[in-house]
Amino acid sequence: MVKRLITCVAVLAAMALWLPRTAEASPIMTLRPATTQSGAAGETLGWGYDILNDTDDDLFFSAISASVPLADGTINLAVFDFFNFQFAVAAHQALHVDYDRALGIGLVEMTLSSLLSPGQTVTGQVFLDYVLSSGATGTFSLDVKAVVETTPVPEPSTMLLLGSGVAALLGRRRFRLA
Q1: Positive or negative: CA dihedral 23, 29, 33, 37
Q2: Higher confidence at residue 45 or residue 76?
Q3: pTM for this model (two decimals)
Q4: CATH number, domain 25-151
């Protein structure tokens, strides 16, 4: 009986060591809307965010910073205000914040340089440091990307095709009336 008990304990211990360990859950942050937006040169674009804190600890934000090539645009982090908005996410909770320029809320704003040409892309990064109530720390590193809109210009062949279609319709109508 004791031999069986020792064998069972040994088998269970071996299985516990053999089985892969489950990974610690970590918080996830995503941008709203998608990472890439388009806008006109000189325009300000903004992003909101979603956070899923799938840990057993509360999450607190401790710092935010960003980078963008200075020649292409500027980034404004003032829309993420630690004091006026929710800066903590409870364990196993989600937080959803839409960007609203009028209210000045969101994660980040990017103002495109007015000197940019249509089709140019501006990329930047936002870093948001956090601390979990257990003392663990981490950083959300998010890429933001803006594409300068191009103004569609109709091709001459498109205008020629449209004009010939209208002329054909008018000619057909005139032919039927005669």
Answers
A1: negative
A2: 45
A3: 0.63
A4: 2.60.40.10
The tokens 């304990």 sit on which residue? 9
56 phi and psi, to 5 degrees?
-90, 5
- The ranges assigned to domains in the chain are 25-151
80 and 29 in contact (C-beta within 8 Å)?
no
- pLDDT range class, residue 23, cuts 50, 70, 90: very low
Per-residue confidence (pLDDT) for residue 21, from 0 to 100: 43
* pLDDT tens-digit series, residues 111-130: 888 888 888 888 888 888 88
Question: Of 132, 129, 127, which Cα lies nearest the Cα of 59?
Answer: 132
Res 175 pLDDT > 80: no
Q: Which three-class secondary structure state does DSSP give residue 111?
A: strand
Handedness of CA 131, 134, 135, 140 (dihedral sign): negative
User: How much of the chain is helix, strand and coil, in % rounded to 5?
Assistant: 20, 40, 40
Length of the chain: 178
DSSP state for residue 83 in the 8-state scheme:
T
Per-residue pLDDT, averaged over 156-175, amounts to 71
Please, are residues 60 and 131 in contact by the beta-carbon 8 Å criterion? yes
Residues ≥6 apart with Cβ < 8 Å to 136: 57
Rounded to 5 degrees, what angle do the CA atoms 135, 137, 142 make?
155
